[in-house]
Amino acid sequence: MRDLQRVSTRAVDPILRLPPAERLKVNEIFYSIQGESSFAGRPCVLVRLTGCQMRCRWCDTTYSFYEGEWMSRAAVVQRVAAFGCPLVELTGGEPLLQPGARPLMAELCDAGYEVLLETGGGVDVGGVDPRVHRIVDLKCPASGEAGNNHWPNLELLTPRDELKLVLAGEADYRWAKRVVEEHRLGERLPVFFSPVHGELDPAQLAAWILRDRLPVRLQVQLHKLLWGAETRGV
After folding, report:
1. CB 23 within 8 A of CB 73
2. Which segments of 12-83 does DSSP mark as H helices, in order?
3. How far apart are the first and last CA of the chain?
4. Residue 227 bridge partners (DSSP)
5. Which option is the CATH number for 16-227: 3.40.50.620, 3.20.20.70, 3.40.640.10, 2.30.110.10?
6. Label partner for 200 (CA 20 to 30 A): which of 9, 105, 181, 228?
7. For residues 193 and 165, is the Cβ–Cβ distance under 8 A?
């Protein structure tokens, strides 16, 4: 038994011995063109963390649910620095599930990076460094996860943050329109309506927005237009 215990101890990844705030399970880190938000089109380093508590029907990053490797926070910062790019986004999965996510963003801000956070909207965004641009994805009914939205987040958002709603059809549009109007979101921060790729015609979504004179922005996923819907690491 003692021998088995010694082998088991030696087999533990040394990264896992670090405090939770000092380590992260990372799915991928890559350099690309930012595909969404008001930062679309800019070169950006994307740090995709592993894990998500939601299972949206149209999710295009299911590989991030479990795949990944443990890295120290210092190693993540070092990997980001190697790209020499001033814009960094923390995404997932759901990055805020990991205790190391908030201190990582603060450390990147301290190092002079412009930092974006893309979060699924089901976790409290409070406590994120105020220098970070929070991009919150509010789930519409067709996603299957609208019941798991953390609605108090809407009251925390500021003009430097952004709200994204991904729509699969007209029912989602009507729901999203009602939310925007009831919370007067268009007056408070940038709001993006994004069609589910391959399911809702962007031109149809544009027609609804124009018809209703809704104070939102139409968004398509630039990276999918450039490299296709199935390409990873872009």
Report:
1. yes
2. 73-81
3. 48
4. none
5. 3.20.20.70
6. 181
7. yes
